[in-house]
Design goal:
This protein is mainly alpha-helical. Helix content is 66%, strand content 0%. The protein has one domain.
């Protein structure tokens, strides 16, 4: 159940990308994958690289996915922004 929660938190954080310019590495799909994988990776990392068996999962499982999703989105945006500034003919002006 915790893996499902980490996935849903990553997707929930991804929905806020609409408020930023589209400069994501890989476009909006790249942002989706970054948020999703970031939430999963930090969830597993904070859990000690195991799948927790708590039923129902606690609020810590929810909170653990947020920093990874936000950090992965920040990296995706910075890489995409750098690439667009370096080669402006790639897309968005």
């Amino acid at each position: 159940m915790s893996v499902f929660i980490w996935t849903m938190i990553g997707i929930a954080v991804w929905h806020f990308t609409i408020f930023l310019p589209d400069r994501w590495a890989g476009g909006i799909v790249g942002a989706f994958l970054a948020a999703w994988l970031g939430g999963l990776l930090t969830g597993f990392a904070f859990e000690g690289l195991t799948i927790p068996t708590d039923n129902p999962p606690g609020m810590l499982h929810v909170i653990w996915a947020v920093p990874g999703s936000v950090l992965a989105l920040a990296v995706s945006w910075l890489v995409g922004d750098y690439r667009l500034r370096r080669e402006p003919d790639l897309g968005v002006t």
